[in-house]
Amino acid sequence: MLSGESFGAEGETIGEVVFNTAMTGYQEILTDPSYKGQIVCMTYPLIGNYGVNTSDIESKKLRAEGFIVKEKSKIVSNWRANKPLGDYLRENNVVAIEGLDTRALTRRLRDKGSMKGIISTTDFNAKTLKAKLDKAPSIIGVDLVKEVTCARTYEWEEDPGMRRLAGVKKQKFSIVAIDCGIKYSILRNLKELVERVYVVPAKTPLSEILKLKPDGILFSNGPGDPEAVTCTIDTAKELIAKLRSKELKTAVMGVCLGHQILGLAFGGRAKKLKFGHHGGNHPVKDLENGRIDITSQNHNFVIPPETIPDKELIETHVNLYDRTPEGARHKKLPVMSVQFHPESGPGPFDARYIFGEFIKLIK
Amino acid sequence: MPKRTDLEKILIIGSGPIIISQACEFDYSGAQACKALKEEGYKVVLLNSNPATIMTDPELADATYIEPITVEVLEKIIEKEKPQACLPTLGGQTALNVAYDAAQKGIFKKYNVELIGANEEAIAKAEDRELFKEAMSKAGIDLPRSRTIYSEKEGQAAIDFVGLPCVLRPAFTLGGTGGGIAYNIEEYWEILKRGIDLSLIHEVLIEEYLSGWKEYELEVMRDKKDNVVIICSIENFDPMGVHTGDSITVAPIQTLTDVEYQKMRIDAIKAIRAIGVETGGSNVQFAVNPNDGRMVIIEMNPRVSRSSALASKATGFPIAKIAAKLAVGYTLDEVPNDITKETPASFEPAIDYCVVKIPRFTFEKFPQADPTLTTSMKSVGEVMAIGRTFKEALLKGLRALEIGKTGLNSLIEGEADKNYAAAAKEKVRQYLALPTDKRIFYIADAFRLGFSIEEINELSHIDKWFLSNIKEIIDLERAIQNKKLTKANLLKTKEFGFSDKYLAQMFAQDEKKIREMRQRDNVSPVYKLVDTCAAEFEAYTPYYYSTYEKECEVRASSKKKVMILGGGPNRIGQGIEFDYCCVHAAFSLREEGIEVVMVNCNPETVSTDYDTSDKLYFEPITLEDVLNINKKEKPYGIILQFGGQTPLNLALGLEREGLNVLGTKAKYIDIAEDRDKFRTMLNKCGLKQAESGIAHNLDEAKEIVKRLGYPVMVRPSYVLGGRAMEIIYDSQTLEGFLKEALLSSMNQTILIDKFLDDAIEVDADIIGDGETFVIGGILEHIEEAGIHSGDSAMCLPAFSLPEKIIERIREASYILAKELHLMGLMNIQFAVKDSQIYILEVNPRASRTIPFISKAIGVPLAKLAAKIMMGKKLKEIGFTKEVIPPYKCVKESVFPFNRFLGVDTMLGPEMRSTGEVMGIDKDFGSAYLKSQIAASQFLPKEGNVFISVKDKDKTKIVPIAKQLKAAGFNILATEGTGKALQAKSIDAKILPRLSEGRPNVLDYIKNKNMHLIINTPAGRIPKQDEVAIRSTAALYGVAVITTIAGAIASSKAINVLRKDTIVVKSIQDYHKLISK
User: Fold this and answer.
1) Overall number of domains in chain A
2) Domain annotation covers residue A196
């Protein structure tokens, strides 16, 4: 049991504890739906310095189950800030704790793997806390997507978080993003490149999606175990079948959980990483041209390429840290996907060009 | 892409002497580069004039040229060595400039040498303001708005474009004067008119005023395949307007959101591509408007820099080493990260701590200099501190500075009570707005006086986040003041970074008492690893910092180990020479299979490179911090002898705590440093000292001076670099100086010597194992006694003293070494006057001259000394006979006068040089000439020489003037000197005093019609004219000689210059000439 001071909401929270090594971007991390079910420990010790603002959000809500930092800033210093981090957490009912030896915690997670954790501002008894923790379900086999996906289809409009690239001309395409917990940054990136971007709930049947006449379909990022997202995997399978039969020519892209869903749809198996990848500094190499991008990462599962039958997919990217797969494309079909987060938010902009590659797949 | 196989031999250019803005960081980067390239199997040729560097150790390169860094020398080396490539990006601005000039002259093309790292075009683009602006605009990067104009007519268009407020900078004016900031249009026209007038080329730069903007820096690396990574981001504590080198800086960036940081990151990447730095490291500086976030690029260095050394130490990513590997064709993913072993260098370090760098200033050495911090760098060194919070790192850094501060000590103590509060507030207000080295302390005082964060921010423009953290420190201090120090409070203060000593002061207790309290309450630090990855992967390099948290990561081994204390921040009097010795000690002990634990806090150094020692503790060198490490590591012994005075000052305290201080025993150190005991010992040995007395107060001092007669030299014991050491000619000055001297001496003991006028000084360095003693070198000073030995030029072997005097010096050295049971190194200073030998002082430690001597004689003395401390005998090692090289080696000092305008360049007993160079050649004249060129003292071949000497020197100057005349110089002189020369029938033109007529000597200097100045000052208080002449000459780069001895040596050198061209020879070849 580690003790510290509460700086968020009062109460108790349980989740899988993961550490994130990004030194900036806590607001994006908190609002990233992929963190559903997880308590995030920031390895950078000084958090909250620049407060929070209205545009650096990745979804409407705070999604992380809890937040752990070494030291929360006493003040806010940034011209865009409209609120201190503590207020933001309290208003959004996120339990947060500061004053821990976060490095010791990180080292434990690294050595023992991600584990369940509980933060409480009410119960300080190790025994009862342990009991509550033991009762809590693991995230393996749990479909967390249904908790973060949107309720109904909508069209994405430009928002204050939009960050334009100079000299990009919008294509007259429509893209449908299947929302498994999509980050706004993906939508912002797409919107920069094409005229129409629709977002549909994760369980939307393919027939409904096709009614929007998409030129491209994107399987988004999202939280948890990919194998549990059966409904969306089925959608992907159906889509792949239609591509194979040439009934459809729609370009398909997967990001993170979306990448895993596509991998599973092609017959692969998911594997859980020991402590996952969460941060903004992982080098990913493009195996086709040798280019290295520093990428934003947030995943606990991977689809090992060897689990995919028929060698239909070509491995396109590899993580240079641990040689885990980071991207694939289909030999014949217009399907590509990446395990990392090309949209950044937070993280380097290096890989944003990947969305351009996706648009190129649309013919 | 594997390494290139078309290259065999690569020439690396070093950065030359330590100067302000170019310190040991380039030895760190250069040494890494040499090692990295040799590791890859390349032959390395090195040019560097600085002997006090690790990179010029003979084993680091295949051919090491300790020669002046000039285009001429570079060409000769290229002609001789025929390298295929030259790497100019690791030797600071010096290397970049000389490479650029050589490229412009077509030298690389002529010999078919490829510039790797950055080529001519990239250097030009980064260095030339206009080309830089053009490249950045093309890349779509925002710049400060600016216009360069040449007449008033262009003024309206310029201000319409730039807008108000703006800065006007006239080009080429004396000391950058004539510029200013215009807040309104009236001021603008006024400054513009004046500026156009004052600029010799009528050029004025009108620039958007960014003062108060936030300043940032990114360290960027690129490889041949265009992969680019950011190694470290840095946020400056001081806003724009203060040179980054003079600013407190913090890593990583603290107050930018991810989006803002990522935009900066992408712009930095665009910048390195646009400038075309092919491979290696660069730093890119940005300014951000705190009100609206507008971000502009300020500058970029297409080479590794001081910041890259800092970034390397701050993250654990060895930028220079990787840069060298990238330069020969590797890509980032092909180079492994040493720290994690498993992961490649193609990543961006994630850190889980806060790093604070604080500059170290030496304004006390230059009382006439303006201590206001500006865009021109003035600091001479820096410390880096690592903590888990900014507060902890800041307080650690402040105590590491060794400026007598134990934390955020108050500067207005006593003034803060009711009666003085208003005055104190006013003073603090002024200092908040004025950037100086003391501002950080005034900020703390401002909080003590009740200023708000907003008020302080308005006055200083320092970001509120930093201010808020300082406020937390002061709030805690006030909360616990006047209360009992409970365990909870003690822990809290330690977590905040408070030192034991500061707490001791707060609670009016002994430091030891606080330490005991901590021990009792079990409040002790843990050590965490610097691992490049925020613990995501396992780290293999044991690079530690302390913090007060739960988990300790130290893996203490049971091997026999020794702790070496480094020298702390560079300052005048204690610099790279001492780091060199520490590094040698580490290398040497590791050779012996002993585990080495290094402790230091200077990020510029080789000693803080993680692979220099087995373990590195990046910590302040204070009793508290060293004892804490000792508790974890429990070394067999500790070496204090190599880090200069800093560790030596801890000797008694550490011994008292039971540490085994290796080398010469503390009791003998005490004899050497205590004047009474020292005199007794000399008497016993039959050695002479200048007549002297010891004073503990002013009255005693007056009494002694009455006995000795003026002039006298006053020197406190336990000082370094001649602090508060002075030659005194009258009683009024005596009083003033003693006050200061008594302040700077720890045990309040002042030695007053009869000053030996016109004596020749000699330094002897000696090594001993308690049984055998061998002279390392006997160095004859070129300037006469009275000039600090750190400032004087010296020659090894002696160039003018008769052999029988040298023999007596040798004998005396052996007697002293035996008497002090020398175990390791010792330095003795002698004065020779009228064939008598006087002992000036004995330093029982490695001296500043050890690296120079080691290079001269080809024997690594510091390495041998370290082995001796572990029990080896000189006989076993095989060094039993003094080496007298069959060539001359001259050491010359380098001064920072061009940074401190208006400061007199006259040499004296207070050390003011920042660095040294070495000139080696067959005879004294040639070696001296090389040393002068290397020190940028460019002696002329012909032209006008101005001579003005004091009465005493009027006879001595005659033969020199004759020689110069014979060499074809025109002699100009002041009335007195002129008449003296004319009386000896030397034709001399008499120039009027500055106030009495024109053209005077200043006009000659400014018209570039004066080529050499010989000016020996009359007394301690220089005449106004003299200061103006010397400082103007320094500004215009005219060689100035202020001693007769220097003039004699220079005239010899001028004769060589007129006859011969420079011959270059590697140190390895010189060493072959030594008969073994």
Assistant:
1) 2
2) yes
What are B864-911's pLDDT values in tens digits? Answer: 999 999 999 999 999 999 999 999 999 999 998 877 766 777 788 888
Instruction: Name the amino acid, one letter, at B897.
Output: F
Contacting residues for A216 by C-beta, under 8 A, at least 6 apart: A173, A174, A175, A176, A194, A250, A251, A252, A253, A358, A359, A361, A362
Looking at the structure, tell me whether residues A55 and A124 fall in a common domain: yes
> What does the pLDDT look like over B489-547, one tens digit per residue?
999 999 999 999 999 999 999 999 999 999 999 999 999 999 999 999 999 999 999 99
What residues of chain B score a pLDDT lower than 50? Answer: none
User: Comparing C-alpha atoms, which of B812, B851, B814, B845 is closest to residue B830?
Assistant: B812
Residue owning tokens 């005093």? B993
Residue-level pLDDT at B764: 97
pLDDT for B746 equals 53
A259 in catalytic set? no
Whether A224 is covered by a domain: the verdict is yes
> Does the distance separating the beta carbons of B262 and A344 come in below 8 Å?
yes
CB contact under 8 A, B390 and A285: no
Which residue range is the domain that position A120 belongs to? 5-135
Q: Which of B649, B651, B617 is nearest to B633 (CA)?
A: B617
Best residue in B229, B230, B258 for a mutation probing chain A (most A CBs within 10 Å):
B258
Which pLDDT score, from 0 to 100, does residue B370 have? 84
* Cross-chain residue pair B465–A75, CB shorter than 8 Å: yes
- Is residue A264 within 8 Å of A227, Cβ to Cβ? yes
| pLDDT the model gives residue B414 | 65
A254, A300: one domain: yes
Set of chain B residues whose Cβ sits within 8 Å of the Cβ of A2:
550
Candidate from B227, B349, B463 with C-beta closest to A77: B463
- Is A237 inside a domain boundary? yes
In sequence order, what are the beta bridge partners of B284? B218, B300
Strand order in the sheet with A335-338: A154-155, A194-201, A171-179, A216-219, A251-255, A335-338, A325-330, A313-319, A271-286, A292-302
Q: Which two tokens stand for residue A172?
A: 């007259």
pLDDT value at residue B173: 61
- Contact between B1027 and B1050 under an 8 Å Cβ cutoff? The reply is no
Per residue in B692-739, pLDDT tens? 888 888 888 889 999 988 888 887 765 555 556 778 888 888 887 777
Residue with tokens 């407020």: B165
pLDDT of residue B418: 63
The CATH number assigned to the domain holding A35 equals 3.50.30.20
User: A110 to chain B: nearest residue by CA?
Assistant: B536
- Cβ contact A46–B254 (<8 Å): yes
pLDDT at B129: 79
**In chain A, what residues touch B224 (CB-CB under 8 Å)?**
none
